[in-house]
Amino acid sequence: MYRWKYDRVAGFYDLLERPLNGFFNPLRKRAVSFARGRTLEIGVGTGKTLPYYPSGVELYAVDGSEKMLEMAKKRAKELGINVNFRVAEAESLPFPDNYFDTVVSSFVFCTVPNPERAMAEIKRLLKPGGVAIFLEHTKSDSKLVDYLFLLPMKLILKPLLDDDPLRETHGLVGEYFEVEKEEGHYGGVVRLIVARNRKS
């Protein structure tokens, strides 16, 4: 369902989000600064994180929307960086087990239809000791903020983009990975989580 919605808005998606870039781009830069080695970004969208990856990262990127991925490819070309792009869903990623050193998710789990399955896929793909990085919209630390800000946002974004800003992705991460760092920003409306894959 969400794919055609994102295909529909891909051409002007960056324009819609432009007022938020001053808040989110520094967090995107901080999030991907933790990436090392062979790295996968799921839900790359129009490629807003691409300018911030450290040099030396072998970067792969997937998105369920072909139109959004076209925008990301254009951005990568303009930046002069090599990215292996593929159309794929977060719940079914076309890579072998233990393939990546790092997996990045930036403002994705508020939209993923089956977040538990997507989290299990990330765990499958990560090498033992690999790092999962999440920069996500989440339920805040304040019931008042949730009620006055996030709930109205959900009423707009859910039908438009299947986006649910009230999800508790930060709790879900802890069920699959060992959380090493969690930062709440803007009252927990956005969280940056760095977690380790402790496979036996």
Automatic annotation (TrEMBL):
Q: Where is the Methyltransferase type domain?
A: 40-134
Q: Which domain of life is it from?
A: Archaea
Which Pfam family is an annotated match for this chain, by its short name?
Answer: Methyltransf_11
User: What are the coiled-coil residue ranges?
Assistant: none
Listed GO MF terms: S-adenosylmethionine-dependent methyltransferase activity
CDD domains found in the cross-reference section:
AdoMet_MTases
- Extract the InterPro entries matched here: Methyltransf_11, SAM-dependent_MTases_sf, Thiol_S-MT
Question: Which keywords has UniProt assigned to this entry?
Answer: Ubiquinone
Q: What is this protein called?
A: Ubiquinone biosynthesis protein
- In its UniProt entry, the species of origin is given as Thermococcus profundus
Lineage runs: Archaea, Methanobacteriati, Methanobacteriota, Thermococci, Thermococcales
